[in-house]
């Protein structure tokens, strides 16, 4: 039975915050919030106004007297008692708590040898705190004062825990009390196991206590992380599933157990040690490399990946299953005869402040001065032979892994730099891909303890199928099926996606407030389905004749609101995502080979939403026409875009100096576009695309050749 | 000393120092400050572990991390603190549900989440946030009435239209709630006779909830309301003016 939490909010004795006649009313801080919640709106009757005014006058007089003793540093018994009177009426008078600390320190400095006096003074402080807490058990000032008193080395922790039990029964969700409990427990060295039992006691009396579940998660994850006696994931996690079921099934709308269950699922699916998920080039593949804008007319190469770059280098991409640091030439060895690659520099694909990422890239040079073309080079990549690659949670990449690919380097006949305009509608041929061309890496044999994980998921799936009618039932089932697909061996994969897609479609109707959450999850599941096998992916793969048969993935008109499965798409060079519902390019940064990107007819609202494209060093052709850029006053990617607004360093260039007002007006376009090396850009059909912006763009992107289909220079 | 108090005669505290700086920024009068003194007061409150105390008495809370970072960023003095340590401390307050509490191990609460996400946003450190996990926790704050609560199984309140909404906007997950329903909830909290907005429909109004209701409506693009910056709680044009000029 759920306790009625509203029953415990104490009626305010004074309507201080509404008294308009007060000049020096206690300033607003988040600690005053309790006075302003849950108070019915009503007009004040004259006698109520009068009573309120007289109380306010009394309080004002008390405050004036208090300010005097505080500024004159008067710490007599009477003065200290005055501060008590003030705090008992208004525990938010923070200056009074400060004063009391000064008074205590003053007395202690004179009487520290008199232990009895010291004890009685500190006891008095605890009494004052307790009575203030009765007024407002959420007063930050009161709780902090108590901690401060305890730090003077007094009071038994037994007393504190008894006090906490009292507060727990008044309001089991009071986070001040829970925080204070953690503080008191630390002073005693009470074991985590005992505290874990405490959370279990609370939960068994009332499952609807999110605070207890939260505390349980903190304690349990700590015990599991340090591998305490009897705390192994394969034993504990299945037990915890059983514990949380009551919380989920008893009241299908009560959220108390939802997030704990999701954490259990995360512990079940995600292995602690980092693993390599995929790479480009992939193991056993063959790539053709050529330089500049030259065209390879060798039709026999049409079945292989051809990579062209004016940079004379290609990206070697490593994609891990979780963010890691420490990828460098010491921890990853690249053996090949390609000259000029002695000191490879590995960079994380992430924002400048982070040295942690799932995706790491090193650029391998292939254009050397040696005139021996065409030549075949074998490249062997060995990861993790030396320690150093570490996950953000502190786990080492432990099992060394190696893969080998072949690079055919071709000399190119440099034709006149013909700036060919890329059309997205014609020039495409079907591509008959082999699975080794695509990078499907099966790493499951490296996973430890797969059996208990698969069993736990199967049991949960069975249980949740029975709960299918509720929102949490359907959502959890969809997540469980996705989890199952992720940790099962190849072959079973295609099977569950239809069911998952149907569950999300049901949820879009059942819980329409969160429609777009389910829509995003639906898009993720759809992309997982598309990339689940060579057969399904092939339906969307083409080769573009005009640019060396570049491999184009066409995912247009799929109602995609979100990007996913990029680890399987690292080989893609041209990507058509037009006519979808994307509002950001989050996730695309891993697709380092992309040279042409079509995002027309989507829901992009700003250039800041395209920030991830700054990581795509090969990008030359970008179409963002027919979106919503410039239409909205609220920018939801303002802080996800590296700029001075998020305190990112920037070097001012000529444009920045000469065109300050335009740079401020179009700040995100400026910062994003200046980091791209575009030849072709389409922005028509956006509110932002007017004369002013269209003349600003070529200033920011000097090498741009085509803007909205018009050639900018000869 | 450099710090500001809540009112004349009261003791200085970082809470009111930020409010003073925000008000002056709003009126473009930051030049009346002794920026060196104020920033030194705030920077001096950073502890060894990167956390911030509210004042000389040592209460530590991620609210103060946000306040210090927000304040120093407006004053363009972020280099006076160790941003790296400040970020590390905030990350140590991240919970398994994706949210943040006031100290390590403390329960996730929308107010604290706003402070931590805001501080990470201002310092270009949002990559530490699991946006999908936190986004789901935040979007589930929307209850049947359309209002938002601050944590699971609590009552909705207009002030969460700011704390939850701005957090969702900063991590680009605001599309996961029903904006129209939230607008309706905020408008239902107005006192149509005497003006002002309350925490819940038919409760007493106050300026705290009036501010957050209006700010929430701004984030929801309600017509006629100026655009507000979700990290600084100041108009976008004020922040752009301060931070986009070298």
From TrEMBL, chain B:
<dbReference type="InterPro" id="IPR008930">
    <property type="entry name" value="Terpenoid_cyclase/PrenylTrfase"/>
</dbReference>
<dbReference type="InterPro" id="IPR026873">
    <property type="entry name" value="Ptb1"/>
</dbReference>
<keyword id="KW-0677">Repeat</keyword>
<dbReference type="InterPro" id="IPR001330">
    <property type="entry name" value="Prenyltrans"/>
</dbReference>
<keyword id="KW-0862">Zinc</keyword>
<dbReference type="InterPro" id="IPR045089">
    <property type="entry name" value="PGGT1B-like"/>
</dbReference>
<feature type="domain" description="Prenyltransferase alpha-alpha toroid">
    <location>
        <begin position="2"/>
        <end position="233"/>
    </location>
</feature>
<keyword id="KW-0808">Transferase</keyword>
<keyword id="KW-0637">Prenyltransferase</keyword>
<keyword id="KW-0479">Metal-binding</keyword>
<protein>
    <recommendedName>
        <fullName>Geranylgeranyl transferase type-2 subunit beta</fullName>
        <ecNumber>2.5.1.60</ecNumber>
    </recommendedName>
</protein>
<comment type="function">
    <text>Catalyzes the transfer of a geranylgeranyl moiety from geranylgeranyl diphosphate to both cysteines of proteins with the C-terminal sequence -XXCC, -XCXC and -CCXX.</text>
</comment>
<dbReference type="Pfam" id="PF00432">
    <property type="entry name" value="Prenyltrans"/>
</dbReference>
<comment type="similarity">
    <text>Belongs to the protein prenyltransferase subunit beta family.</text>
</comment>
């Amino acid at each position: 039975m759920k306790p009625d939490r509203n029953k415990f909010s104490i009626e305010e004795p004074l309507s201080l915050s509404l008294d308009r006649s007060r000049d020096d009313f206690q300033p607003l801080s988040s600690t005053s919030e309790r006075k302003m919640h849950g108070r019915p709106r009503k007009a004040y009757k004259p006698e109520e106004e009068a009573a309120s005014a007289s109380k306010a006058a009394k309080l004002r007089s008390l405050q004036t007297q208090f300010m005097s003793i505080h500024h004159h540093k008067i710490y007599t018994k009477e003065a200290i008692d005055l501060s008590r009177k003030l705090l008992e009426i208004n525990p938010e008078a923070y200056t009074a708590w400060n004063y009391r600390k000064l008074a205590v320190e003053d007395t202690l400095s004179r009487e520290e040898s008199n232990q009895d006096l010291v004890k009685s003074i500190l006891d008095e402080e605890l009494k004052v705190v307790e009575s203030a807490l009765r007024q407002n058990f959420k007063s930050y000032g009161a709780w902090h004062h108590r901690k401060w008193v305890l730090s003077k080395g007094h009071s038994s922790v037994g007393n504190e825990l008894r006090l906490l039990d009292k507060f727990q029964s008044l309001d089991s969700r009071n986070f001040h009390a829970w925080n204070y409990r953690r503080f008191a427990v630390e002073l005693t060295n009470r074991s985590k196991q005992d505290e874990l039992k405490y959370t279990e006691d609370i939960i068994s009396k009332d499952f609807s206590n999110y605070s207890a579940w939260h505390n349980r998660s903190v304690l349990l994850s700590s015990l599991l992380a340090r591998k305490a006696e009897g705390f192994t994931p394969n034993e504990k996690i299945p037990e915890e599933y059983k514990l949380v079921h009551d919380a989920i099934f008893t009241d299908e709308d009560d959220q108390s157990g939802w997030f704990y269950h999701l954490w259990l699922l995360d512990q079940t699916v995600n292995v602690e040690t980092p693993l390599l998920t995929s790479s480009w080039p992939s193991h056993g593949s063959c790539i053709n490399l050529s330089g500049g804008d030259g065209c390879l007319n060798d039709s026999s190469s049409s079945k292989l990946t051809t990579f062209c770059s004016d940079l004379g280098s290609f990206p070697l991409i490593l994609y891990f299953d979780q963010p890691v640091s420490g990828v460098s030439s010491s921890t990853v060895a690249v053996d090949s005869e390609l000259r000029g690659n002695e000191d490879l520099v590995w960079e994380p694909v992430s924002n400048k402040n982070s040295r942690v990422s799932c995706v790491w890239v090193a650029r391998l040079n292939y254009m050397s001065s040696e005139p021996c073309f065409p030549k075949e080079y074998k490249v062997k990549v060995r990861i993790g032979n030396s320690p150093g690659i570490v996950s953000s949670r502190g786990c080492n990449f432990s099992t060394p892994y190696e893969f080998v690919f072949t690079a055919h380097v071709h000399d190119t006949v440099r034709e006149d730099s013909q700036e060919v305009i890329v059309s997205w509608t014609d020039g495409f041929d079907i591509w008959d891909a082999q699975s080794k061309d695509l990078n499907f890496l099966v790493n499951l044999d490296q996973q430890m303890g797969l059996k208990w994980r698969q069993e736990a998921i199967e049991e949960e799936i069975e249980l949740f199928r029975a709960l299918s009618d509720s929102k949490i039932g359907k959502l959890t089932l969809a997540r469980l099926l996705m989890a199952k697909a992720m940790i099962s061996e190849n072959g079973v994969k295609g099977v569950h996606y239809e069911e998952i897609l149907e569950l999300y479609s049901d949820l879009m109707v059942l819980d329409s407030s969160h429609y777009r959450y389910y829509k995003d999850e639906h898009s993720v599941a759809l992309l997982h389905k598309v990339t689940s096998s060579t057969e399904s992916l092939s339906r969307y793969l083409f080769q573009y004749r005009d640019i060396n048969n570049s491999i184009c993935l066409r995912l247009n008109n799929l109602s995609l609101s979100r990007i996913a499965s990029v680890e399987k798409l690292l080989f893609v060079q041209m990507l058509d995502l037009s006519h979808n519902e994307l509002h950001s390019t989050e996730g695309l940064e891993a697709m380092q080979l992309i040279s042409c990107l079509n995002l027309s007819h989507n829901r992009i609202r700003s250039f800041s939403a395209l920030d991830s494209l700054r990581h795509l060093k090969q990008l030359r052709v970008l179409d963002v026409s027919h979106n919503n850029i410039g239409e909205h006053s609220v920018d939801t990617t303002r802080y996800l875009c590296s700029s001075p607004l998020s305190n990112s360093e920037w070097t001012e260039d000529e444009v920045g100096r000469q065109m300050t007002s335009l740079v401020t007006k179009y700040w995100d376009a400026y910062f994003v576009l200046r980091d791209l090396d575009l030849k072709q850009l389409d922005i028509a059909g956006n509110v932002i695309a007017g004369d002013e912006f269209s003349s600003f763009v070529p200033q920011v992107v000097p090498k741009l050749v085509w803007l909205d289909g018009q050639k900018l220079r000869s | 000393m450099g710090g500001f108090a809540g009112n004349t005669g009261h003791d200085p505290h970082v809470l009111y120092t930020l409010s003073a700086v925000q008000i002056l920024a709003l009126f473009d009068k930051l030049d009346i400050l002794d920026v060196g003194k104020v920033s030194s007061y705030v920077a001096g409150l950073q502890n060894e572990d990167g956390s911030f105390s509210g004042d000389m008495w040592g209460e530590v809370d991620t609210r103060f991390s946000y306040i210090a970072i927000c304040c120093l960023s407006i004053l363009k003095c972020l280099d006076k603190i160790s941003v790296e340590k400040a970020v590390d401390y905030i990350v140590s307050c991240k919970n398994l549900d994706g949210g943040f509490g006031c100290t390590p191990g403390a329960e996730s609460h929308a107010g604290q989440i706003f402070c931590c996400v805001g501080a990470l946003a201002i310092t270009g450190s949002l990559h530490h946030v699991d946006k999908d996990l936190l986004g789901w926790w935040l979007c589930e704050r929307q209850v049947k009435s359309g209002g938002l609560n601050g944590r699971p199984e609590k009552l909705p309140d207009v002030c969460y239209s700011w704390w939850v909404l701005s957090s969702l906007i900063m991590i680009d997950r605001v599309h996961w709630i029903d904006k129209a329903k939230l607008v309706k909830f905020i408008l239902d909290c107005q006192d149509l006779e005497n003006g002002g907005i309350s925490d819940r429909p038919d409760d007493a109004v106050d300026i705290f909830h009036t501010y957050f209701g209006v700010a929430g409506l701004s984030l929801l693009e309600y017509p006629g309301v100026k655009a507000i910056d979700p990290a600084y709680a100041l108009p976008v044009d004020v922040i752009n003016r301060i931070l986009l000029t070298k």
